[in-house]
Amino acid sequence: MKKTRKTKLGRLAVPVSKEFKQNSPIFIPLFFADPTQKRQIVWELQLENGQCDSGRVSRNAINLPSLPIGIHHLTVIVGQNLLSKGHKIYECSLHISE
Fold this sequence. Notes:
By secondary structure, this protein is mainly β. It has one domain (21-97): Immunoglobulins (Immunoglobulin-like, Sandwich). Helices cover 0% and strands 46% of the residues. It has no helices and seven strands. The strands form two sheets. The chain has a five-stranded mixed sheet, with no helix packed on it. A two-stranded antiparallel ribbon has the order 2-5. The chain is globular.
């Protein structure tokens, strides 16, 4: 079983899964103990059909356009410097329904 990471406030930094309706924009807030701390945060989205997309997080949230119906995989990488040791990886399953 994969261990989930919680912030010092006891809340998950990134939800384990989220459900959305088709044709609706996707907004996923990220929760960190100190939201004012500078971080480099990037995301990668793998759609159920294998297509991939990626981007940078802005203002501690991920905004995505509407996605096709299915179960998609979102990976979020957080670090002071993404190339250094000590970065954290979070995963979220996105369920899109009609």
